[in-house]
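Why do we care about 3D structure at all? Because function follows from shape, and shape follows, mostly, from sequence. That is the central idea of this module. The next example makes it concrete: a single protein chain, its amino acid sequence, and then its structure expressed as tokens.
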Amino acid sequence: AAVPESGAMLSVQLPEAEVVERLAPWVEVLTIGVVNGPDSAVVSGEASAIAELEASLQTDGVFCRRVRIGFAAHSTQMDGVLEGLEAALSSLRPTASSVPFYSSVTGELLSGESLDATYWCRNVRDPVRFDAVVRSLMSGGHGVFVEQGGHPVLTLPLTEACVESSGVVAGSLRR
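And the structure:
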């Protein structure tokens, strides 16, 4: 099945709880798709509802920006592709890894053996909990974060998360 093209995503500079409150009028068609940090979330769902939410947030002076993607990842709109995706990934045979893997699905350290087709389907459908991963890493004694990507959108949420600790954040590339 194809990914529905009627979806969209909107980055919102508000705490998750405030974003959830603002989603009340669209609770059937919009959801939190990503939580990046203390004041950074991404809403995912129907494109028309995203447009209405965006207009409402802008009217209230809340910074928001469309995510350049033509579908609503990490939302119910992914349900139609999960069966085919799981079938396509069914031959995966995950094994243990020497590199620790912190999951954006669970927010915790996972063993490599658990990264099967079902896990990757959850990764497409469930909210990304980048905030929880950062907290897990920090509570595990990690404090140096390097964003590796040509579009350093996570540098700010990482910096916000490190404010109360001695964490250090650096972006490695520029647009």
